Amino acid sequence: MALPSRLDLAIEIARRAGKLTLEHFQRGIAFERKSDDSPVTVADRAAEQLLREAVRHAFPDDAIIGEEFGEHEGTSGYTWIFDPIDGTKSFISGVPLYGTMVGVQHEGRCPIGVVYIPGLDEMIYASTGNGAWHVKNGGEPVAAKVSDCSDMNDTLFVTSQVDTFAERGAGDAYLELEKKAYITRTWGDCYGYLLVATGRAGVMVDPMMNIWDAAAVQPIMEEAGGVFVDWQGNPKVDSGDGIGTTKTLLPHVLEVTRKFPPLS
Residue 41 and residue 102: Cα distance in Å, rounded? Predict the structure, then answer.
């Protein structure tokens, strides 16, 4: 089983790529608009190139999917899935709540996930059966665990951007979740899932997301004792939407999200 060595590499390159982005952070970096109107910078591209080159060197038969440079086919059955800067809008605004995401998919599931928040020097990583681990400021890994809160009225609900609910035709879903929660904040993107996996938030919801936004999150949420599912409750990373929460809070969230048709 080659998972331990892939996990080691995932941790290493997520940190290296994240550190690379700091060379451009809070320096007035220019950005371009992609075809979907989302921003991209030289830092996104340089970080993904670092990730890709490292994997091709270590595991040349593995496939790769990245946000900036598309898909590279492989023959091993393993697929690396990268988001070099998840939260580029935060990054270009000088806000440190963005992250580098590295996921590994095998046989339809994601057994490895790493999220690194370079601006805070905070990382969370997981592999199936080995728990989720939280590292701050280069310290020793500490076991990550979701909150034991069982009441939506006592929990923090986070998301990335409110208007994406309306863009999906689900503006009422946001309003209902906000009403159910004790407090709502847009500390979103991958940082929102890190907050849930470490017990600081109870629910993170994305009305629209890509596979590179979700792949690293699935094993982290599950190994922290929570769940990562789509809006219909399926444990998938390619449905186009996502929920990261605890097992006890999940029914309350699905009560809202299942009112809306799936994206795919």
Answer: 19
pLDDT digits 0-9 by tens, 131-159 = 999 999 999 999 999 999 999 999 999 99
Segments making up each domain of the chain, as ranges: 3-143, 152-257
The second-level CATH assignment, the architecture, of 152-257 is 3-Layer(aba) Sandwich (3.40)
Q: Which helix (H) or strand (E) holds 242?
A: strand 242-246
Residue 230's pLDDT is 98
Q: Which CATH class is domain 3-143?
A: alpha beta
| 104 Cβ contact list (under 8 Å, min separation 6) | 3, 6, 7, 10, 78, 79, 80, 81, 110, 111, 112, 113, 215
Rounded distance between C-alpha atoms, residue 49 and residue 251, angstroms = 40
Assign 57 to helix, strand or coil: helix
**230 exposed, middle or buried (CB, 10 Å; 0-12, 13-18, 19+)?**
buried
pLDDT given at position 67: 85
Interior angle at CA 31, CA 64 and CA 165, nearest 5 = 75
CA 151 to chain centre: 24
